[in-house]
Hints:
With 109 residues, the chain is mainly alpha-helical. The protein has 2 domains: 2-56, Orthogonal Bundle (Arc Repressor Mutant, subunit A), CATH 1.10.10; 79-109, no CATH class. It contains 6 helices and 2 strands, in the order H-H-H-E-E-H-H-H. It has helices spanning 2-7, 12-20, 27-39, 60-76, 80-90, 95-108, and strands at 43-48, 51-56. Strand 1 and strand 2 form a beta hairpin. Helix 2 (12-20) crosses helix 3. It is elongated, with a radius of gyration of 17 Å. The two termini are 33 Å apart.
Amino acid sequence: xxxxxxxxxxxxxxxxxxxxxxxxxxxxxxxxxxxxxxxxxxxxxxxxxxxxxxxxxxxxxxxxxxxxxxxxxxxxxxxxxxxxxxxxxxxxxxxxxxxxxxxxxxxxx
Length: 109
């Protein structure tokens, strides 16, 4: 999704080549994921010659929120607290990041 958001429009080949710069990945994996994202309503596609060109169907914030909710539901049974505890305990958060997180928690109370 980040590649499509940054480019506006992208083919599977565009995304595949961008991802290859960071890690090895199969072209078919990229194609499958883009089809899944389209079926979920995160991407739209149009035919252009022999390729499909994908573009974001929703704003980035909306899609990220949806993906995070789905992840929390699937992995943590819908409970966000264990995810937050894991991030605080196991990730290398800076003092500034921890302070910002604490501030957000206080604002929500």
